[in-house]
Amino acid sequence: MLMSGTLILPAALLAEWAWGYPRWMLARVGHPVMWMGALIGALDRRWNRGSPRRQRIMGAAMLPLLVAVSVGTAALVQHALLQSMWLWPMLVLAATTGLAQRSLADHVEAVAVPLAAGDLETARIAVGMIVGRDVAGLDEAGIATAAIESLAESFGDGIVTPACWLALAGLPGLAAAKAINTADSMVGHRDARHRHFGWASARADDALNYLPARLSGALLVLAAGRGWRTGWHVMQRDARGHASPNAGWPEAAMAGALGRQLGGPVSYDGEPVLRATMGDGPRPDARDLTRALVIWRRACRLLWALAAIVAGVILWLR
């Protein structure tokens, strides 16, 4: 699995960047993450009840069931596609379903374009599709901040983390990473309903992303070019102040790379939440969101190069 995952990763990254997930396939059969989400939703409705202790136990039981189903399915697909070298392109295409470069770019560009044109209402609607915070009252700086933070965090948990687990364990590793990340995004919250049921999913996602998050931050720092020293300094200084043990690394790296301040107070469902700030300088604007996309694209290319180097070393050692 290590060899097959490592060897297909560069091609999978490039293919997903170029084509993403076909819309016709999304409309007809959905997406693997949607299938995982349907299972999580069903278990959440059936199992998330009773005392806090029962909720914790059932939430912890949900996770291995979800991972087993996802990994088992992926293992069967990988086994079938490894039977012939002529099926390797299909293996690459299967791997693209766990990566999110194209969809992330599309979602953030949907915010950046109207924001640059001064259309705040359209930009608010678009950013509301990718963040959980309240967006109705956001000004230009608030919209840009939300989009940049989502871009940086998703570079980690939506691209680098699944890429790392694909390289380590092939399609089953990729499936496990997406299953845990999807569970965390759906139930790993601290609200009244999921505080106990989603605890195991949140902790598993923290462990899954621990090293990839730091690699994500390093890639964003390198992608800053001449500003890499500032990016590195801010990442080292501010990442640990983030509420998440992982999201702060790519977000702080991006803040330093841009020379702007991210973080700060937001609200969720009308409730204000005080967050630590990351970076120095003014709050970002529409031009900074465009700059963030440029840095993000460079970081993606650095990831491709790293994946290609590792694959080349594996081939050379064979």
UniProtKB/TrEMBL annotation:
Keywords assigned by UniProt, alphabetized: Cell membrane, Cobalamin biosynthesis, Membrane, Transmembrane, Transmembrane helix
Topological category with respect to the lipid bilayer: Multi-pass membrane protein
Gene Ontology terms for molecular function: ABC-type vitamin B12 transporter activity; threonine-phosphate decarboxylase activity
GO cellular component, one term: plasma membrane
Segments passing through the bilayer: 30-47, 59-80, 299-317
Pathway: Cofactor biosynthesis; adenosylcobalamin biosynthesis
Cell location: Cell membrane
InterPro entries hit by this protein: Cobalamin_biosynth_CobD/CbiB (IPR004485)
Origin superkingdom: Bacteria
GO annotation (BP), single: cobalamin biosynthetic process
PANTHER family linked: COBALAMIN BIOSYNTHESIS PROTEIN CBIB
Function: Converts cobyric acid to cobinamide by the addition of aminopropanol on the F carboxylic group.
NCBIfam families in the cross-refs: cobal_cbiB
HAMAP family in the record: CobD_CbiB (MF_00024)
Similarity comment: family membership: Belongs to the CobD/CbiB family.
Protein name listed in UniProt: Cobalamin biosynthesis protein CobD
Organism: Blastomonas natatoria
